[in-house]
Specification:
alpha/beta, Cobalt-precorrin-4 Transmethylase, domain 1, Methyltransferase, Cobalt-precorrin-4 Transmethylase, Domain 2, 2 domains, five-stranded parallel β-sheet, five-stranded mixed β-sheet, elongated
Length: 264
């Protein structure tokens, strides 16, 4: 039976690749790449560089242009139609490019289990008529891990929850007792939090792990506009941006001390 390896490759630093991921790559004979166009060509190049650097066996790349998502459609309906089109494309690629008993691989940005749809699309490809295949998944460094490491912070506070959500849901999912991590924000989620006016601390990062890495942190009311301006400039310059941010309630100011009291 055909076998597909879904391999997390981290979020920009070639050293994010684990030994397990390198070993998995060297089991594959064909790598599937869906090209999302010129704006994402840099992400394709990184995958090609990882292959050139780590492969110790012959391999080939099966490449196809990814279908486009209809951004004018309602979000969930648009994503569902986009995934359906990608699943049909992948089903055909597997049938054409991967022989019976062959091993293919998908190199997934970040971690396959966090805000990535490769596994969903492969499930849908089965329903779309792909030849039978088995899947193995190999974890990768996620954007959340890269963000907290870059800032040298702990993701959670003691005894309180962590909510990982999308930018468009950040205002709905904000809680006074939780750390909120927003993925896939186009800037509108961050601006909505700024307009609400809560006292929040933020840690932001873009192009994490890459030479273009950008970081900012501080009180949201003080650095929010700076972050939005920097991300807009970076997107205009590069044609794409991948960023993530984390907010949580700012600690209360220290209680005033009586005159002459000695602070501990």
């Amino acid at each position: 039976m055909r076998r597909l390896l879904v391999i997390g490759i981290g979020v920009g630093d070639p050293d994010h690749l684990t030994f397990q991921a390198v070993a998995a790559m060297n089991r594959a004979e064909v790598f599937f790449l869906l090209d999302k166009g010129e704006a994402a060509a840099e992400l394709v190049r990184l995958r090609e560089e990882l292959l050139a650097r780590h492969m110790r066996r012959p391999y080939r790349i099966a490449r196809a242009d990814s279908p486009k998502r209809d951004v004018a459609a309602p979000y969930k309906a648009g994503v569902a139609a986009w995934h359906e089109a990608r699943a049909a494309l992948v089903a055909g690629m597997i049938a054409r490019e991967l022989p019976e008993d062959g091993t293919g691989a998908f190199l997934v940005w970040g971690d396959p289990a966090l805000y990535d749809s490769t596994l969903r699309i492969l499930d849908a490809a089965r329903e779309a008529g792909a030849p039978a295949f088995e899947i193995e998944v190999f974890p990768g460094i996620s954007a959340v891990q890269a963000l907290t490491s870059a800032h040298g912070i702990v993701l959670n506070t003691v005894g309180d929850p962590v909510i990982v959500t999308t930018g468009r849901r950040s205002l709905d999912d904000l809680r006074p007792d939780a750390t909120l991590v927003a993925m896939l924000d186009d800037g509108s989620g961050l601006r909505a939090l700024m307009a609400r006016g809560d006292s929040l601390d933020i840690w932001w990062g873009a192009y994490l792990g890459s030479p273009d890495q950008m970081l900012a942190a501080g009180r949201l009311s003080e650095v929010g506009e700076i972050i939005l301006e920097r991300r807009a400039q970076a997107r205009a310059r590069k044609g794409w941006i991948m960023d993530v941010w984390l907010v949580r309630p700012a600690p209360p100011p220290p209680a005033p001390q009586p005159d002459g009291a000695t602070r501990p």
